[in-house]
Amino acid sequence: MKKGIGQHSIGDAFDSFMLIKESSRGVASNGKPFLTLILRDNTGEIEAKLWDITSDDEAVFVGEKIVKLTGEVNQFRGKAQLKITSIRPAQTTDGLHVSDFVEKAPVEKEILMEKLTEAIFEMKNPAMQRIVRAFIKKYQEALLTYPAASKNHHEYVSGLAHHIVSMLSLAKEIHHLYPQVNKDLLYAGVILHDLGKLKELSGVITTSYTLEGKLLGHIPMMVEEIGHIAKELQIEGEEVLILQHLVLSHHGKAEWGSPKPPLVREAEILHLIDLIDAKMNMLNRALENVKPGEFTERLFAMDNRTFYKPLFEE
Amino acid sequence: MKKGIGQHSIGDAFDSFMLIKESSRGVASNGKPFLTLILRDNTGEIEAKLWDITSDDEAVFVGEKIVKLTGEVNQFRGKAQLKITSIRPAQTTDGLHVSDFVEKAPVEKEILMEKLTEAIFEMKNPAMQRIVRAFIKKYQEALLTYPAASKNHHEYVSGLAHHIVSMLSLAKEIHHLYPQVNKDLLYAGVILHDLGKLKELSGVITTSYTLEGKLLGHIPMMVEEIGHIAKELQIEGEEVLILQHLVLSHHGKAEWGSPKPPLVREAEILHLIDLIDAKMNMLNRALENVKPGEFTERLFAMDNRTFYKPLFEE
Amino acid sequence: MKKGIGQHSIGDAFDSFMLIKESSRGVASNGKPFLTLILRDNTGEIEAKLWDITSDDEAVFVGEKIVKLTGEVNQFRGKAQLKITSIRPAQTTDGLHVSDFVEKAPVEKEILMEKLTEAIFEMKNPAMQRIVRAFIKKYQEALLTYPAASKNHHEYVSGLAHHIVSMLSLAKEIHHLYPQVNKDLLYAGVILHDLGKLKELSGVITTSYTLEGKLLGHIPMMVEEIGHIAKELQIEGEEVLILQHLVLSHHGKAEWGSPKPPLVREAEILHLIDLIDAKMNMLNRALENVKPGEFTERLFAMDNRTFYKPLFEE
Amino acid sequence: MKKGIGQHSIGDAFDSFMLIKESSRGVASNGKPFLTLILRDNTGEIEAKLWDITSDDEAVFVGEKIVKLTGEVNQFRGKAQLKITSIRPAQTTDGLHVSDFVEKAPVEKEILMEKLTEAIFEMKNPAMQRIVRAFIKKYQEALLTYPAASKNHHEYVSGLAHHIVSMLSLAKEIHHLYPQVNKDLLYAGVILHDLGKLKELSGVITTSYTLEGKLLGHIPMMVEEIGHIAKELQIEGEEVLILQHLVLSHHGKAEWGSPKPPLVREAEILHLIDLIDAKMNMLNRALENVKPGEFTERLFAMDNRTFYKPLFEE
Amino acid sequence: MKKGIGQHSIGDAFDSFMLIKESSRGVASNGKPFLTLILRDNTGEIEAKLWDITSDDEAVFVGEKIVKLTGEVNQFRGKAQLKITSIRPAQTTDGLHVSDFVEKAPVEKEILMEKLTEAIFEMKNPAMQRIVRAFIKKYQEALLTYPAASKNHHEYVSGLAHHIVSMLSLAKEIHHLYPQVNKDLLYAGVILHDLGKLKELSGVITTSYTLEGKLLGHIPMMVEEIGHIAKELQIEGEEVLILQHLVLSHHGKAEWGSPKPPLVREAEILHLIDLIDAKMNMLNRALENVKPGEFTERLFAMDNRTFYKPLFEE
Amino acid sequence: MKKGIGQHSIGDAFDSFMLIKESSRGVASNGKPFLTLILRDNTGEIEAKLWDITSDDEAVFVGEKIVKLTGEVNQFRGKAQLKITSIRPAQTTDGLHVSDFVEKAPVEKEILMEKLTEAIFEMKNPAMQRIVRAFIKKYQEALLTYPAASKNHHEYVSGLAHHIVSMLSLAKEIHHLYPQVNKDLLYAGVILHDLGKLKELSGVITTSYTLEGKLLGHIPMMVEEIGHIAKELQIEGEEVLILQHLVLSHHGKAEWGSPKPPLVREAEILHLIDLIDAKMNMLNRALENVKPGEFTERLFAMDNRTFYKPLFEE
């Protein structure tokens, strides 16, 4: 792909493909309808106006559609804006996918799937293994593409799988250092804990919340689904309840969305390694953008702190 | 029934039936096992020691068993204690039931069931009506005997049904005053909101918490079961989700056990009338025990306040 | 009345009466004074500039004055603004009242007064009845026109009386369901609880706070006035103290402005039904503005929540 | 007076006068009534039982009565207890007063009154001066005997006057250092701020709370009374309102009982010097009881801290 | 000095000296670099753009530089902006100092130093006196010029010394009223408590935070330095520890930056008089700007309150 | 060593060595002094009274003394008590050490020291390495014997070193999984973070707090000492400041004793792995004491939670 939108300056001509992230209709002072488009490629975002539209245009230029654009990068009220000269929907022959236009995990899907499979293979408790397998089978595709959150941490394609695989590595080491830890239970908890997000978030690109997500939230949704799947698989025994408890309690406190705090050792660890991996993801990405001797931007999900990169880091 | 334990003074002889509420084994300084029994009838509770027990005794004198006792009311470290002269399990021919020994709702089971049935009959939305009916059918017996809580409010036999029926009256009036309220939804919420307690509490008498109750709590358990039952009844549509939301949010705040606050009008009302009925139950019972011009004992579940009964109340 | 300001579009001519809600003086870059007017009718608000004013103009075009305007609806920095061509004060012969230009309670003043009178008539305790009557007599006119609050709930003409009358209906039903409740005390509490707002808020239209309102607040002001009036009526006995307590405690907690929490049964109920009626008022009005399947705007006074209207609401 | 109860050891005979602080009736295991007496002199307190009492005894040996006792100091469950051999009420001829048996302020009443009078004399604003004078006249006797609180600070006879006079000295110095401060207003605030306690606390010795104290609290009671007195004196003008505000806000925050925080300079200072004098009183008395190098007992009203007395303090 | 920038109106010509408070480089749409300057004199601030700059300009027109400017006061987006006609750095011969362009304490440096010296001279404890002397000697110049804070209170030249000297007066009076207070310790605490700010804040004019200030804060920095200096002076004994404790605890609570609360009498007083002097400074300056009958602007550091100046204040 | 005190039952004779943990003097009702001893061996604790003591006894039987005892295990008010028949101080020839009587880390001192040395050897940053080495050299002996805390976690001999070594393993793995982490900095932070406890706690056995510990706390004490040692070693550069920051911020929040929150990546990780290792230590030891299907006792330092050991754990 050519130079992305993130590398253009004011005044540059632009001629490339972009993804429509959002499209909203307005009416201009001359009474004619227009579209405000938020366009993105994998280097950044830009706003554009499409004037004097037809009802066909409205139906075509919608969210998650890929388009071919020519135009010029202008400035409007201090922000860059793309002045559109021509626009057309991408065609199958253009060979493009939505995923070409969004940020992705630094690890390939195949690798992530492989590591997940390995972890499940290591599990010895059949009840837990079967439940985990059933979930992976049911949600494999979504799991490998969804972000882990709509913002803050792992908010990119395959973010959820990336988060799970990182946490599995942490879980393995924790088990190594504290051998009393039940590895099967911890692995199962890691893999399942956030799968409810696949139904809470509406999609990979727009990641708004579904109605179910808003009214129930991913935690109770997942507790319920573990119950359904265990019923279908005719699994009984404490494993089901304990797995539900791990999911239910993994936010740690009632104020953070867990009606019960962790009351099983592996539930406590699950909460802690979830915290660590989320924080390391945010911190490492923020620190990459600054030079030694500088502070990062404020990180909202880390109590709005700004972090310092010491001079001795290079 | 004769004079109850609550009406005996220190030094009185005692000869009557009581219910064993709790039984726990200890070993005396002479090395012999004994039982500490908490006994109750519907006028109060007393502790007793049963010395030099056999393993048969251990198997017989357990919680929820009715026994015939003779003895004397003594005092030990400032508390009344029953010195047992003789003890035997009650026999079928004694014609007694556990329910004779516990406090009961001021309304009969039959009336409570009738009022529940009436309310369900009034409902017009078929999805909600069918779900509510399925629950009533499944849990009818437990529903009519369980308390609404292990302490604080409606903590007596049929307390849960009594609480529901009171709330249905409130719901009816609220609907009358604010006709925008969806009566079917509010009725369904009222009936279902606390049914999870039937699985959270271990029984009518001892009302300790089940393992499931401790690790998940009645709210997520009930959200899950609404899902299961809707699946079995093949009911789809927003009604299922909204009913789950009403149950999930009825404690009002995350800190109080609801991971989502009420986000539907009837969910907000459900939370409010649950509060009112619980508080009125506590307040009215506490104020009955004091005379005008006096304060009640401290009510733990009402921020430990003590309430005043004005002189002009007769 | 003709088409209101709320129904005009940019570019429309305007020729009608409006109420001046606020008027503030500025000095233009040419050194001449001008007025910024906030104008309203019962369909909405608009801003206007009145240039090159005389000191007469300043004295005439003040808050709560009705004016006849002609002009054109323009746009300035993205907001509608009325360009004034002519302006004159309304005359008596125009037959207009301030109340024609503001939102009103959905129930007529006469009905509200009737319901209040009925409730007072039902009271049997002479001390409470006399105190309530004295307040109604003293404040009748203001009571029937003031809003219940400057924003959030019942923030319209007769809002306070509307709130009281709604709460009286709730009180009646609560008494019906829990007959231990002292109806006279609860009625008196409902009628008096917010009357302090008549002195806390500066008026019906602008509803800013008086100095007394800012430095003392409506609760202590009302506690004091109950004392004054009881003295004048030479009423002694616990009724006075208990009524003062109901007013003092009706916000429920110190953090919410009640230095004492409710410590009398009817004080607790008063707090709860005040909550219910305020919340129902906010919720019902917000939900009227959305269609099934949509969420309302955020409701600041309900913890900033946004509420969902289910699809099955028609 | 002879050796006080605080100087007796277990086994000592006792023969002296004491004050009954509390008297409560019980029934012994033999069925006969007895009294539990809390007795005090100005060196400490002791418990005693008076067995086999008559109804005359019950009427005579009540709180705030002075009695002549002989007996022996015993020990019961680890606490000292007075075994009574004989008891009789003190007679007028014994020449004793309740105040002989309680802790007193380190400054004489006459001096306290003098300092109060001086401060009032210094005031120039006639409205404030007249209001303060009216209060002093009305409450002079109680003001000079009441404690400032039932525990924590200045909890001794004349404690309230002592607290006021100390604060007046602080006020004078603050005015000296920050001459913008309105001395009259600050003096009036200092003198009035806690007078409501004269009606909130039931007396000098037992210092329990009156009903009015429990249901309204001293702050709203005092705000009301300033209103009454200003009415009687026909004083109008902002002084009344501002004085009410100073009283209302002097606890500083809603959570601490002030529905409005200080919003006038002198209200803020009043709050701060009230804090300082209360804390210095607690601290100085606690530190007197320990040697350099030791920590005091925990001071409940200072966040349960324990304070260190450095070695270099002597 | 001539009319300051604060006295100019839009359209006025300007010809005077100003101080550059901040200077930041930008690139214009024509690709050429420019500087945005924040300029101030002791009457106020204004923004200006310096277009088409050379790299020499960039090196010369930096923060804390005094410049001679001619130009015109314009308006840009509603804010005043200085259009620069000519600019040159001030020369030594202009005889100007940075301190001519900033707000200053209302007391002269010499007086402040004198009062400090007096207080130290009064101290009798040699250990404390020597430590305090060492600090004053080391930091004298900075101490007499730094503000006490970067905003809120005493945020002007010599603000820190002014704050200390005010607090010394308060300390003297407190010692007078409560003679148990150790005056030497309290004086030492007052003088040392905020000296860490000399290393926490980067300078007198810009008062941003140093890296050390951001990562450690002035309190731990000062605790450490007291340790260093005591070591150098070979002072041992509890005085060092107690002084460190006074500094450590002077914010009063962990949430406010003191890991230990005050646990020594003088530490508690230090905390209280620090509060009083800071609040009086903020309040008095805010009230000076309003007329009787008005409220001040909101004071952020006083819980965002707005204070009322009563009508009877002249 | 023979059967320990923890394995004795009521009525057993006892004849062995124990350590006096605490000794306090009392006076019996017969007027003679006695000692209350808290005795311990490495299996548990018991109380004993030593009656009719001489002043020699008082001087001999003090805390941290080893004694030879014969007697009988009795019961007093429901708690075991050792009735002493004979007691004598242990002699050098008994070959016993205090450390024989206390709980110890499950890893030998030598191993702990070796692992510490290895970690320091791995460090490449000379400034950090030299500072860490200086501390280890200065405190080696105490470091290898002190507990990590006076209760809650690692509260046993060598507990601090055990905690550090566990955290070093976690640090190594975290660095492995997130290679951006600065291993030297994290290692140095882990080793230094709690060394202040060596001066905060008074000793290995009694672990009460020193005066310095109470008035400053281990965090500011350690920040100061890093400064002193860096000065002595003439180390300059950001390493010193960053290490001080890691120590200062390792409790994570102001409320928990860190005046600055972590503002450097490794500071955040240090806080997190400190939490994990402390929690794992508490959890694993509590769960060892219960069987599958049971709950542990309440763990105070984990929000008073009680943890469940699932049935499938064996």
The largest sheet of chain A, given as strand count, sense and whether it forms a barrel, is: 5 strands, mixed, barrel
State the order of secondary-structure elements of chain A, H for helix, E for strand.
EEEHEEHHHHHHHHH
Computed Rg of chain A: 23 Å
Q: End-to-end span of chain A in angstroms?
A: 33 Å
Low-confidence stretches of chain A: none
The general outline of chain A is globular
Protein name (chains A, B, C, D, E, F): 3'-5' exoribonuclease YhaM
Domain HD (chains A, B, C, D, E, F): 163-279
Keywords (chains A, B, C, D, E, F): Hydrolase
Pfam family, one (chains A, B, C, D, E, F): HD
Overview of the structural elements:
- The structure is a homohexamer of 314-residue chains.
- Chain A is of the alpha+beta class and 314 residues long.
- Helix content of chain A is 41%, strand content 17%.
- In chain A, a hairpin with a 2-residue loop joins strand 4 and strand 5.
- In chain A, helix 2 packs antiparallel against helix 5, helix 4 runs antiparallel to helix 5 and helix 9 runs parallel beside helix 10.
- Chain A is globular, with a radius of gyration of 23 Å.
- Chains in contact: A-B, A-C, A-E, A-F, B-C, B-D, B-F, C-D, C-E, D-E, D-F, E-F.
- At the C-E interface, helix 7 of C face loops of E.
